[in-house]
Design a protein that fits this description.
By secondary structure, the protein is α+β, with helices and mostly antiparallel strands. Helix content is 34%, strand content 18%. It has one domain. A two-stranded antiparallel sheet has the order 1-2. The longest helix has 12 residues. The radius of gyration is 13 Å and the shape is globular. The structure holds zinc ion. The site of zinc ion has 7 residues, from strand 1 and helix 2.
């Protein structure tokens, strides 16, 4: 599968379904950060998103309204 033309990024999804709003460009970087901030006994999965990511879209709208 050719994925060169689309930009992918990663989020951490915590146990229980909450999605971390931070983005990582590689799965390895997301894994590394997750290991630093995960709570004892908590689990997570690294999920890959394309350009239509709803989480990042929501952040962009908020940032624009703040007049950054
Ligand atoms: Zn995203």
């Amino acid at each position: 599968m050719d994925r060169k033309n689309e930009t992918f990024h990663h989020h951490i999804r915590w146990q229980g379904g909450a999605l971390n709003w931070e983005t990582w460009s590689t799965r390895a970087a997301a894994e590394y950060s997750a290991r630093q901030i995960v709570r004892p006994g908590e689990t997570y999965v690294i999920e890959e998103f394309g350009e239509a990511c709803m989480t990042c879209g929501a952040i962009r709208v908020k940032t624009a309204r703040a007049g950054k």
